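Model: Ready when you are.
Researcher: Fold this.
Model:
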Amino acid sequence: MAVIGALEVSAQGFGAMGLSHVYGRADEEESVRTLQRAIDLGITFFDTATAYGNGHNEELLGRAIAGRRDGLIIASKFTHRQGGDGRRVSAREAVDASLRRLNIERIDLYYLHRIDPDTPVEESVGELGRLRDEGKIGGVGISEASAAQLRVAHAVTPLTALQSEYSLWTRDVEVEILPTARELGIGFVAYSPLGRGFLAGSGPVEDSDRRNIHPRFTAEAVAANSRRRRAIEDLAERLRVTPAQVSLAWVLAKGVVPIPGTRHISHLADNWAAGDIILDERTIEELEAAFPRGATVGDRYPAEQMKLIPAEPALA
């Protein structure tokens, strides 16, 4: 088990984003079965967002947990701009809509998904704090915030969690953001711990897969980054485990809570078993030497989305 603020969660959570066509077509019935199998395995922490399929993901998760809500920690996220027309919504509107779609009475952890450039972060989290006080949400979170933004937000409303991308090929948070979260007592949730599948050896197979527009999935970037991935593959072969398990074991060794996602029941048990792999200090150093901070080729997101990602200080 792990602790995020006052929330006790499974050591790994489940990131549901990929169940809403982000990576190409998804079968809803298989997705529901996968989510329910995750519960059977002991996963108690499930992550969704209003932006995943314009609410579809929340509805899907709501279906999967119906009648099985007890003991689960449900997290969702919102942005102030929603839908194709960028309609502005308040945190209160977003929470009420999320509650309806999830069909639950309280969301255990609710994040500001991205800081709105036109809305002070303290205003956004302040409203979430009031919703927490009313019992509509259990904890207030923020996603992809800088260290300075974390301090400002936490001073207004104590934060339960920070969610940021973190994996062997995305280590920038180690410079300032992760240490600040730890200093303030804010739990850290690592999304895309498998590098959107890349570290596990997968990539886009359909034209509709969103990874096709990500700079890290261009042919040139894949060729360059694959050379580093060989370190994971070689270690996996030596340990007789999968590259995905090695990658997750590294994130788990950092004392954070990863939320890998998968559409397929067959991958669930493999991911979960990463918790049984203990990497020694020498092995961790070997992996980190193959993936030094800032060395991954390609930005994390397309240019427009990168504008909402806080700039990091110079890497040390």
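Researcher: Now this one.
Model:
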Amino acid sequence: MRKITDEWGKPMTLVYQSTRDANNKVTASQAILQGLATDGGLFTPTSYPKLDLDFEELKEASYQEVAKRVLGAFLDDFTEAELDYCIQSAYDDKFDTKAIAPVIKISDQQYNLELFHGATIAFKDMALSILPHLMITAAKKHGLKDKIVILTATSGDTGKAAMAGFADVPGTEIIVFYPKDGVSKVQELQMTTQTGENTHVVAIDGNFDDAQTRVKAMFNDPELRSKLADQQLQFSSANSMNIGRLVPQIVYYIYAYAQLLKQEELEMGEEINITVPTGNFGNILAAFYAKQIGLPVGKLICASNENNVLTDFFQTGTYNKQRPFKVTSSPSMDILVSSNLERLLFHLVGNSAEKTVDLMTALNKDGVYRLEDVDADLLALFAADFATEEETSAEIKRVYESAGYIEDPHTAVASAVFQKYKASTNDSRKTILASTASPYKFPVVVVEAITDTKGASDFEALAKLQEISNLPMPKAVAGLEEAPVLHHTVIETEGMQVAVENYLGL
């Protein structure tokens, strides 16, 4: 495990700095415990670990072994024994395949990396299966006596995956906010039927950006922080603003490349592209970090739905959130303020907290900022486009008819954007496409696209999807219709902090 050294050669742990304060530097375990920096920034590596990505060795390695190699480099103040415990606790029979994240060939150029074989059938399971173990281990490491309160906003999948991970974990409470009319029925029921004495689920009348803005404000409220401390409580985050959520996502890109080598679909050292359906920018940022530590990546293709603020950003250099918010068939991407983009901005401006603060201040004040004087080579790694609702539906049908494979709407957005990218660039590199959710999570959208029929309920569509796909219905949705709803709270967005204080008895 490689250690950074100071100017005298003394070993140091990898440094994570807030994107908004050059003096706010912590170790990996401290960053995981805090979640979000108290100055409002995101803890981000200022340098990258040097690790030997020996793909001759890695192509024979298990997912768990690849995870240990990557996490050992990025989370280098965890001991080997601590990492072994966290990895083995996370990547076990909760996943319905020993491969954990299998790679499926769709065409000679497209390989779907299936990230939905965990307990909640969405890619968030890949990191949220390990985050509770990392967090509790970090708390013990630092002698923390406070109860950890996981406070998170979700656009549909993070909430359920986080609750599944933290349910009844000693020393934790978890409070999840989601947009009442901004998730699928299956997503909503997965959350509102969640068991666990320490789980709390709240629907708000706004959208995901409203929820995320309020959550960030609570993290940054010194008066609320003081109230929590008086009761021996502290906030932490379960979404990809927490570096402990982001780093485990790097693993599966390294693993996917190794598996393609093993399947003899790639030559050693051959460059690949990675296409990611993108909302909050965490999943594609993990692919960016994978490249920084040695994964042979040509282009990172950022795929958006009709909330195409990121497409405009990469194509024009201007980020403008002042546009209509659209509710689409790919709700986990219905986001106009992509929080993790702040980490990329930090790197683009030379790891300057001062410049990053200026950009974020402009976004909060004016709703817009423009990139100037940035690292052009880093920016050139990215391509971006978006898919309309009609294009997404057509792509679900096209892939089903051409490959016999059923994509969920988020994966179909990425697939449609990849087709556009190929047509416009003639780039012939093979592409790993992040398949972020099971089609069973969005049955109505998928069945309507494939059959050209409308009107089925979610549960009628589930049965039809099983018939079409010949795949067993995942445990995550089987019996969901009969499961008792345990969480009924619906509030105005402005009432989020009051709800949190009530749950915690502040």
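Researcher: Key takeaway?
Model: The radius of gyration is 21 Å.
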